[in-house]
Structures are given as C-alpha cells and as structure tokens.
Amino acid sequence: MKTFFLVLFFCVLSMGVHSQGSMPVWEKDYVWGGDKDDYLMDIHQNEKDLSILAAGYTFTTSNQDISNVNRGYSDYWIVKFDSLGGLIYENSYGGDSTDNLSVIVPTSDQGYLLAGSSASGRNGEKSQDSKGGLDYWIVKIDKEGNLEWDKTIGGLEDDVLTCAIGSENGGFYLGGYSSSNISGNKSRNSYGAEDFWLVKLDSIGGIEWDLTLGGDSTDIMKNIAITDGAVLLGGYSISYLGGTKSERGYGGYDFWLNKVDFQGDLIIDKTMGGPQNDFLEEIRLQLHSSGYWISGTTYSGPGGTKTSGYFNNGDMWVLKVDTSLIVEFDKTIGSYNYEKCKDMEISPEGSAIIAGWSNGIGGNKISDTKGGQDYWIYKVDTVGNIYWDKSYGGFSEDSLEAIFIKCNRGIIAGGYSRSSISGDRNHLNNGGNDYWIIELSVPTRPWFNVQNICARTQLTFHDQSDLWPDSRKWNFDDPFSANNNSFDQDVVHTYTQPGVYNVSLTVKEGCQEDTTLTREITVYENTVFGNVDLGRGRSVCGNELEIFNEHKNAPLEVSYAWSTGDSTESIFVENIGVYGLTISDDNCSDFDSVLIDTCPDFGIPMAFSPNGDDLNDVFKVYGVGFNEFELLIFNRWGEIVYQTKNQNEGWDGKRNGNPCQIDVYVYKIIYKGLGLSQKQKVGQLALIR
C-alpha cells in the first residue's frame, strides 16, 4: 500500500523570491564644503550612535562649513554628523604643503585612523619631517576628532598611499605605490618606475615590516583585503614579467593580484586583463562562500583573461575568483559613454554593490543620466546578473568615491559634486566641489507563500524575505500545537484542527526595527485522511479480482476516482498493474494504490548438458508471477550442490567450481505469488554431457 495526501481547491498566493533585496529608496542628502574645492574620499557610519564620518581633503580656508585656516595647499578634512544631519564636529589636519586623505579606518576605541599622502614638512598637525616627495601620512584621532598621534612613512621619492585596513592583530596595513629605493622607511629598492608598497604597523603606528612588489615598469596598488592566513593586495600593472611579477601582461595595464602571508612573504601573484587598459580598484571577500570579488575600470574587449565585452570609453569590470585566484566569471557593466569604478561593498546575502560614476546611457545600464556626470550604483548577484542600477546627481559633475552599507542594510554614498540644487541634489553649491553624501534605504519586506490546507497534513513555510535577516521568528497561531514557534528559514507545521489561522513572520535586519508580516490560511476539516486502504498487493489467478476500500472507517459521503477512470466504490480487474484510488470530500483527498500481479506459472527442463557449447548449458526455472523464489539442487546423497533466490540465475553443473558428475539430481522450488501462500515443487533433472 502506498498512500499520500492531496489538497483540493486550494488557493496559492505567490510572489517572487527576493533574496537579493528590494530596490534602494532615496532618503536624503547632505552637503558640506567651503568656497573652494573639497574632495570627499571615504565615508563610515558608527553602528552605536549612527553618526556618519565623511573624510577627504579641502583647499578651502575658514569658509562656510570649514572653520580652520588651511595650513598649506590642501588639508585632510573630516566632518562628523548625526543621523539627522546635525554637525557633531569638523576638523582639518595638515602641514605647509599638499595633504590628501585617501581612506579612513575605524578603530576599536570609536576613533579613526586617517590615511593619505603628504608633501608637508613638520608643521601644523604634522609632527615629523617629510622623508622626501610625497609620503604616507597617517593621523590617529579619538571619537571626538582630537589628534592622538601621527606618523610620516616614506622614502626619498614619492610614496602615495591609496588604501589602508585594520590588521589581524590590532594594527594596520598601509598600501600604495612607491618610486623610492632603500631610504627612509623603505627597506627594499624599487623594481621599476613605481611598485606596490605595503607597510605593516602595530596599533600605535610602529613599523613591523614593509614589502615592495613590482616589475620593470609601473605597478599601482589600490586595495587590500585580509583573508584566512593571508593578505590579498590588488592594483594594476603595465610591467612585463620580472622582479616579483611572474606573469606577462595581456595589453596595456592589467589587474594584478598578490597574496602574501602575515609575515610579508609572497605566496602567489596573478595577472588578469584584456587587450587594452584595465584598472583594478576594489577587492572584497565573498560571503557564504570562499573566494573574492574584484572590480575596476576596463577599456578592453574580450581577450586575455577577459571573456565579457566592452561598450565604450571605459566600463566597469567585475570578477569573482576563487581562493587560488582562478576566475569564476567576469562581467562588463557600462553604457555607451564613460564609467569609472570607485568602490564596492558586499551585501548580507553575498551580492556585490558596486559604485562609481557615469555620464552615459545604454549598454546594460538602465538608469538615466541627470546631467553631466552622476553617481552610479548597481547590484550584481552571485552569478553575475545585474539586480538593479541607480543613478543620482544634479545638473553638473557629481563624482562618487565611496559607499558604505549601513547597519540597517541601507546605503550611504559619498563623493564630491559641482552641482547646485537640481536633480537629486537638494542643497546649494558652496563653491567648486562640495562633499555630497546621499542616504538610501533598502526596505525590508518579509514574505512567505501560503496555501489553504487540510487538517492533519504537513504544510511547509519558507521565508522569502527580500534580504538576509539576522533573525526570524514564525508564529503559527496554533493553540493546539506544542511547536507554535520556529526560528528556521524553512519549517514544516501540521495543523490538527480545522479553522482560520493568522500566521506571522517577524524578521530583524541589523539595527532595523522588527518587521512583521501576517497572512491568513484556512485549514479544512479532513474526513478522508488515513481512511483509504486498498489492502496488500495480490495476484490474479483465473477469475476477475475485486478491489475496494478495505478501511474500516471508510467515509460514506465521498467521491471515488480510480486510476482506470471508474468512479464506483469498487472495480474488477483481470490484468496485472498498479491500481490507484482517490477519495475526496469537499476540500480534501487521500490516495492509495495496490499492485496486482499474475499467478505464478513456470516451466522446468528435465535435463541439461553443461558442456560449454552454449546450448542448454544452464539449468534454470522459466516463469512469471514470483513474489518470492528459491531454487535448491540436491545430489543422490541429499547434499545441496546449488542454491539461489534469484530467478534469473541458474545452475551451471558445478559445485564449488568443480564439475559435477553425470547423474540424476533432485530440484526443489519454493515460491510464492503476490498475496498468495507459499508453495513448493520437487522434481528430478538429468545432468548429461
């Protein structure tokens, strides 16, 4: 007997699965600046007080939002404001020349490390002399923006910091490119024009080690990612193989990746690119799987390691690679004009949110331009599909530099803008380029499909919420169940009593408030469940066989639907096969099936000749209708010389691999038909040769 349950007349309300998240929704924008150019380069939100720190560099002196006098040509400038846009503090830091901030690193004391490049000497906030040309310059501030310490790191030539990250032991990695030979803080000579230069610091800015990587020409480091047991460095290179570079380029600048251990020893390097220039910008670890996301700007069509196409005048290029730096897929994303990749973050479900600027339409860019150059943000899922893309800007030039995924799963994007009130910009221009920050919400929409069902049958609920929640809670509104709640994504619940139930799903994402969805289901009275039984399988022997519902609690007012097309309470069959019956009340159904086989019938040879001529070499039983079968062969002394329970096997006239003598043997067949009692047949057979 095989039985399962069906629901009749149910209604399924469906909705697509939104595991990639809902579309971003505009919230607000902020503008900070003075009468000259102010370039925002990085942005961060504190998860505790939700304050936002915007950081970059300014050419302004004591004007509008900038309170300090400019120390030289340009100064680091940071602005911290609350979630309503109210100013908490703004500070500038610099010396008598160029001081350009590139990146900020949040620290465990709620402060920040400000990292960039400086040509200034020891004056202003700069406590150490220049090493020569541009140097790495880092400034540690507390949560109030007060300077705690600063460090100048470099050689005799230009050393330009482009990236920084907290280290695995509470210190910092500083990355960029260097033209310096051994001098100052640089322990190794340059391999070419510019090289990758990585500096490992302790928590108070002391140098632990430095590493130079490069080939015979220009190698520009742009990003750092910490992996399990290693540090991944990314940038672009036009060098030929040589120095520390083990692979030749593919044409122009290529993406160049280097993996080093925590002691600064090179593990592997990898070159990726097409026939023209390709400029790596960002590296991020994959979530929920191993490997990396890589993004940058490309001018290449297919060729080299690049399989995706090219639209025009600079596109964004996105790759997923495994831990061995083998490409899993690459995708070109752009319009028929110009795009530049500037930042990338990974969303909670593992997709990549990539950002930069664009001034075109067409290609695989859906969003329009606002005028001039716009912020452009898009989302790529884990198999390379574009999930959404959005442009934001005013009527002039708006250049995005950084994005940050907030604790409530929204997005902060920042850069610099020449626009005034127009398009998406809601603030007047202060003069030249201003810091322009926008906030986008990504609403959480809990969702699950429902269907009406019959009592005492399993119903599966699946959380199809449009993001990756940190927690969820199901409430099945079932006072009759000891398992009324669940915290799993997929859960099976059985309602034992009919009625109307309000099922709710509550999800929480990051620092968002709980969001609850409640949906109604109807559970029907089930009069048929478990009340259909066609009995055990059996055999047709001669006359027709009647099949009917043998269950003692078989309901009366139900409909019958046989697999033969009949609708009577019973049917008569004479052919073998599987016969099924569905019984149904107004809403519910139950099903059972039974196998009908033929009566056992067989033929047995009286002799066989196992002499290897392929004619009658094996003694076997030919027949049908066996549900159970066993064949035994005895010699004249009653010893078993052969035994099998497989009807398709036979005796080859041997015992333990040795030929048996010519003689008369006794066979015994023990058999049983489906649903019949066991029987035996005994006879003799002659073995001849």
Give an overview of the whole structure.
The protein has 689 residues and is mainly beta. Among the domains are: 538-598, Immunoglobulin-like, CATH 2.60.40; 601-687, Immunoglobulin-like. It has no helices and 53 strands. Strands 1, 39, 41, 43 and 44 form a five-stranded mixed sheet that branches. Strands 32-38-37-34-35 form a five-stranded mixed sheet, with no helix packed on it. A five-stranded mixed sheet has the order 46-53-52-48-49, with no helix packed on it.
Summarize the structure.
The chain is mostly beta strands and 689 residues long. The protein contains no helices and 53 strands.
What keywords describe this structure?
5-stranded mixed beta sheet, mainly beta, 689 residues, 53 strands, Immunoglobulin-like, single chain, elongated, disordered N terminus
SS strand fraction: over 45%
Q: Helical percent range?
A: under 10%
Number of strands: 53
Distance N terminus to C terminus? 49 Å
Low-confidence stretches: 1-18
CATH class of the domain at 601-687: Mainly Beta
In terms of topology, how is this protein built?
Layout: E1 2-7, E2 12-13, E3 25-32, E4 38-45, E5 52-58, E6 75-81, E7 87-93, E8 99-106, E9 112-118, E10 135-141, E11 147-153, E12 159-166, E13 172-178, E14 195-201, E15 207-213, E16 219-227, E17 230-237, E18 254-260, E19 266-272, E20 278-285, E21 292-298, E22 315-321, E23 327-333, E24 339-346, E25 352-358, E26 374-380, E27 386-392, E28 398-405, E29 411-417, E30 434-441, E31 450-451, E32 453-454, E33 458-462, E34 471-475, E35 485-486, E36 490-494, E37 499-508, E38 515-524, E39 538-540, E40 545-548, E41 559-562, E42 570-573, E43 577-584, E44 588-598, E45 601-603, E46 607-608, E47 622-624, E48 628-634, E49 640-644, E50 654-655, E51 658-659, E52 663-672, E53 678-687
Parallel strand pairs: 32-38, 39-44, 46-53
Antiparallel strand pairs: 1-44, 2-31, 3-30, 4-5, 5-6, 6-7, 8-9, 9-10, 10-11, 12-13, 13-14, 14-15, 16-17, 17-18, 18-19, 20-21, 21-22, 22-23, 24-25, 25-26, 26-27, 28-29, 29-30, 33-36, 34-35, 34-37, 37-38, 40-42, 41-43, 43-44, 45-47, 48-49, 48-52, 50-51, 52-53
